[in-house]
Task: structure prediction
Amino acid sequence: MGMTITEKILASHAGKKEVKPGEFIEAKVDVVLGNDITTPVAIESFEAMGAQEVFDKEKVVIVPDHFTPNKDISSAEHCAKVRKFVREKGIKHYYEVGRMGIEHVLLPEQGLVAPGDVIIGADSHTCTYGALGAFSTGIGSTDMAAGMATGRVWIKVPESIKFIYHGKRNPWVGGKDFILYTIGKVGVEGARYQSMEISGEAIDELSMDDRFTMSNMAIEAGGKNGIIAPDQTTLDYVKGRVKRNYTCHQSDSDARYTRVIDIDVSQIRPQIAFPHSPGNTHPVDEAGHVLLDQVVIGSCTNGRIEDMRITAQILKGKQVHPYLRLIILPGSQDVVKQMIQEGIMETFIESGAAVSTPTCGACMGGHMGVLAKGEKSLSTTNRNFVGRMGHPESEIYLSGPAVAAASAIAGRIVHPKEVF
Amino acid sequence: MKGMAWKFDNNINTDLIIPARYLNVSDMSELAKHCMEDADPNFIHKIKAGDIVTAGYNFGCGSSREHAPSCMKAAGISCVIAKSFARIFYRNAINVGLPILESPEAVESINEGDTLEVILERGEIHNLTQKTIYTVSPFPPFLQSIINCGGLVPYIRKKVKEDG
Result:
């Protein structure tokens, strides 16, 4: 019996020829990631474990990106603890404000994650790197501490669901619409404990930025990872970024899947997830009359340069609706630099948008765009849970950047063709 | 462990258990004040130490924040019984030593306010109000070995010591 790409990566990191779903293994990790919310808790666990040094100074990556630039004294104290730890342990890959990015935009861009890797991160959207053909999954702070101390993680080998996307996509439809549509189809626990293997001709045609968006939201379907086998697009992306050896795996033709789900992308229209679940999806043309107070474009889901280009394409020469705030959160300093070089930044400022330094702040109701009671926001982020972006009685709608930019102009949820 | 049951729905996410807006501190007794706040703002004022949370499918979905099981523990919740758990919450609960049990049958029958007694070693949920007993399947041996150690911290501490 053949193996899936996930099983092959896990077997190779557990020193085994093969692994089977349900089996518990201890896998070597290539990268252990933490941020400013999860690392302080991990530091406490690390010390309580009696660990002195991290297993490999090159393989621990720490990015303070949630409450940074520090929003208040508490978050500053939190980050100070992280900074002290990083210096004491000599951790090489630490990214400070001004040089950082939102972690899941930053790590691939800097070449820190590669095809065939096992990556654990104390952030649920660590599944993003599955787009490179890596096994990448979110874990908690104590797992992060154990990973830093031993270079290993315990994993139950997941069963796999194969998603095959075929057909030709419609205008204004991207990776975000594919994944929202998929979550709407399988439900928020449709892939619980399982690996989501994303494949098909429509995926072959997707750019890396769109693929990252899809893998990023595997967790919103309950998935353990969301993996896309490496192809030429992947290799072109990692070339010049990844400076170490890596391995490209593919699933065997006789690999086992619990389900195979076929999706015809020509049926997918731009998607909206209504409050309060990423699985509550509808095509934008069925959204009705939803007036908006705020639009957020960016985050680890849609903060990459292509997202900014799509946004600029729609905003160019137009104005943000007078009753609405458009907040743009680019994913990294490199994205910001590229926005300046391509004239995108100017387009945003001229249209009346606020552009922030990279931060997760607005996505999790931390700072930089918190909602008041009764306010409605359309956001290109990944979660629209109750209270996620502010007051528990505010409402969050999710979409891709094209719908978000168009809606920022219209002041209500619209299809991009209404303003473009 | 013995306590009163508090019932919650399906898909209770980590933002409901502990909203991210409070995570600029990591003192769990401080965070416990906001436990379940966006699901039930009065929850923390109603519960007593030892009480038990019951919930539907996919409990703890969303974020990787370990603060979720840890703040429930700090709030005095002795155990969570759900129809199913989201995977990161599941492993976090085991890692930090918050007892969790999966039993759709037990959850289905429990009413809010029932008095429950959980005997972890035997995997038994006794509904003392309804005079019923439910048995759950044991944890896989590997997870049981972490649980027996008292969580992942003592488990790894032992390993770190052994490796010298």
In short: Chain A has two domains: 5-263, 271-418. The longest strand of chain A covers residues 160-166. Chain A has 14 helices and 18 strands. Chain A touches chain B through 54 residues (CB under 8 Å).
